[in-house]
């Protein structure tokens, strides 16, 4: 009897199989855009060889906020109350600066109940990847308009949205996030490149992903449906990501290519697509978003990038050893130190 050895399982640069990056089985509706985003997250962390146990996942409430259960089972996780993930993430990352933070939120969770938290997270530029799974409706409570629904968008019931939307990318660029991107859950290649750049970025990355809700907002008249995105998606650039650790050659497509080196030495290659777009020009990014809103197009890609600005932990001048692992004798100042501070303030 002949025995054939099973082929060796494929592993990444730290010797882990892709199974080590998976999560529980999804309970979201089949075809929901959020499932595709979870798959991209699994692929990116696996391909970049990041230790899953060094990652901390955060979320609030909503269909999107259930997603962290479906990727990186070995990571730390905290499912917070509605809209409060930014402060929980900020606290955890301050307590352990070696944790890699990823927050998954939705348009309701971020732009309505969590807008105050979102704004202050932007100002601080805390290092983490913050994904907004944006479908324009509250899927968990039967599809009412959220604050990102476009003016004139129509619900299945025929109700028209007559309020102006909040654009989470505009807020992010204005208030201090240092990597801001928009993508579409159906664009696997672009979303992967953006996610990898965000993971390598040394600051706050906001990724607003149009992620259709197939149950409540995927009909004619919706501006967050698969059909609408296929018609109106206008990519700003073709993106390639070259990780710092890999000795690989990339085929740079013909045409003008701009290269940006990220903090960890990874490189982002931006190929011009029809327009001369510089993602380091803040005013141009805001103008582009404004023009897209007026014309009804959805511009996708890296909208804004500032690899030079300090993130919050650098501003605070924290020690390299995580605060969460320091003994109380070091983290709690003695009475004399407090008295000295009080004396200085008198
Ligand atoms: Fe996704 Fe909508 Fe279903 Fe929620 S209700 S899981 S957002 S398709």
Short description:
The protein has 346 residues and is an alpha/beta fold.
Describe the protein:
- The protein has 346 residues and is an alpha/beta fold.
- It has a single domain (18-316), classed as Rossmann fold (3-Layer(aba) Sandwich).
- The protein has helices at residues 33-47, 63-66, 85-95, 107-113, 115-124, 168-175, 188-200, 226-232, 282-295, 312-316, 328-331, 335-345, and strands at 55-59, 76-79, 100-106, 128-134, 137-138, 144-145, 179-184, 204-210, 233-235, 237-242, 257-261, 267-272, 298-305.
- Strands 2-1-3-4-8-7-13-9 form an eight-stranded mixed sheet, sandwiched between helices.
- The protein is globular and about 65 Å long.
- The chain starts with 32 loop residues before the first helix and ends with a helix.
- The mean pLDDT is 91.
- The structure holds iron/sulfur cluster.
- The site of iron/sulfur cluster (SF4) has 11 residues, from loops.
- The site of iron/sulfur cluster has 11 residues, from loops.
Structural class given helices, strands, pairing? alpha/beta
CATH topology: Rossmann fold
User: How do the strands of the widest beta sheet line up side by side?
Assistant: 2-1-3-4-8-7-13-9
| Distinct small-molecule ligands in the complex | iron/sulfur cluster
Number of strands: 13
Low-confidence stretches: none
């Amino acid at each position: 009897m002949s025995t054939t050895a099973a082929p060796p399982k494929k592993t990444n640069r730290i010797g882990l199989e892709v199974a080590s990056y998976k999560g529980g089985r999804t309970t979201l509706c089949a075809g929901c855009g959020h499932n595709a985003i979870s798959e991209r997250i699994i692929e990116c962390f696996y391909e970049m060889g990041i230790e899953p146990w060094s990652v901390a996942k955060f979320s609030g409430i909503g269909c999107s906020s259930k997603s962290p259960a479906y990727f990186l089972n070995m990571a730390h996780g905290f499912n917070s109350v509605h809209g409060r993930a930014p402060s929980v993430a900020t606290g955890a990352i301050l307590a352990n600066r070696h944790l890699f933070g990823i927050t998954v939120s939705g348009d309701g969770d971020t732009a309505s109940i969590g807008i105050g938290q979102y704004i202050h997270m932007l100002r601080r530029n805390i290092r983490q990847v913050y994904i907004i799974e944006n479908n324009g409706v509250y899927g968990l409570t039967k599809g009412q308009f959220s604050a990102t629904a476009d003016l004139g968008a129509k619900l299945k019931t025929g109700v028209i949205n007559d309020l102006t939307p909040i654009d989470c990318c505009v807020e992010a660029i204005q208030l201090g996030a240092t990597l801001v991107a928009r993508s579409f859950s159906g664009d696997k290649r672009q979303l992967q490149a953006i996610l990898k750049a965000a993971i390598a970025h040394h600051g706050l990355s906001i990724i607003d992903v149009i992620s259709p809700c197939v149950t409540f907002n995927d009909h004619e008249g919706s501006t967050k449906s698969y059909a609408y995105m296929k018609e109106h998606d206008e990519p700003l650039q073709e993106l390639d990501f070259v990780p710092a650790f890999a000795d690989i050659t990339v085929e740079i497509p013909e045409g003008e290519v701009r290269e940006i080196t990220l903090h960890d030495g990874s490189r982002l290659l931006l190929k011009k697509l029809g327009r001369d777009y510089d993602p380091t020009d803040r005013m141009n990014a805001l103008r582009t978003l404004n023009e897209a809103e007026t014309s009804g197009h959805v511009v996708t890609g890296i909208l804004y990038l500032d690899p030079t600005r300090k993130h919050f932990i650098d501003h605070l001048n924290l020690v390299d050893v995580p605060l969460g692992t320091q003994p109380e004798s070091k983290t709690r100042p003695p009475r004399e130190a407090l008295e000295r501070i009080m004396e200085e303030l008198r």
